[in-house]
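Before the break, one more example. Copy the sequence into your notebook; we will annotate it together after we see the structure.
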Amino acid sequence: MPMDFDWTMALGSFLVAIIVGLTGMGGGALMTPMLVTFFGVSPLAAVSSDLVAAAVMKPVGSAVHYRQGTINTRLVGWLCVGSVPAAFSGVLLAKALGDGESVENIISKAMGVALMIAAAGLVLRGYLAHRGRSGTPEDGEQAPEITVRRVPTVLVGLVGGLVVGITSVGSGSLIIVALLALYPALKANQLVGTDLLQAVPLVFAAALGHLLFGDFRMEVTAALLVGSVPGVYLGSKISSRAPSALIRRVLALVLVASALKMFGLGAVPLAWTLVVLAAAAVAVSLYLRGQNARDRDKLPSSAVSPGLSGASGEQSERGPTMAA
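Here is what the structure looks like once it is written out:
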């Protein structure tokens, strides 16, 4: 291992990779700004090194979800039809554009708006699920069969791959927003698992382009790999088994964080904003839980299990029956 190996960079990549494994996104939107802001890596070198590291990190996270059965492979296939060639072409396009910084700035602002909309959508879905009016399956429910919309899915992959090739951002952030819109019936862990697997060939194609035409730096990539591989494994283990409501809350926070980063918010204001949002989310959750408890207390005992009061007495005489 080289003497100039940066352990603080490895620790930072470990923390970011946990978020990637937990939510399927945040790698490019958080890792690349971290390299530029805190470690002084040039933007092109940060993009190149991040993508090469992600080519190793993403398969680790997707393998965990594949074993848990939380991946829609048909969606992955149609996304890759558009994203793989577009990701490689995005690197060439970034080279061809003379003012790449202004193009990246426009893309970042547009993505910031999309990410904020997606975060608001997740909050709304959580509220509807709490009120019992959401069509999104929760834990323990059988998810409906997803009908793959081929043309929109390929277009999502194409746009996402192009943006990834130019900026390294979007393999999770941009595509997971589109999947939320196209397939609202996907459970939260299915959304994360599908997004992680589709990102594997996409990131490989973009990484190959940056190895050939970018500014790849081995010492940066090595530090990212040391931290990101165990981090994404840990995050994926949690997300493949965690309750959908928990993943939805974390995903909403990451969406907001990524959006604010796209708008150019500094690290310290971003950290304080997330602390306030997390505290507000906990307060709202506790309030709703207390409200549910009060509503249950107001119900008469017969209303808790309507139509079962007579059956329960009948069952007690017969003895316990086998659960379905």
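The first helix runs from residue 7 to 23. The two ends are 58 Å apart (CA to CA). Try to locate both features in your own notes.
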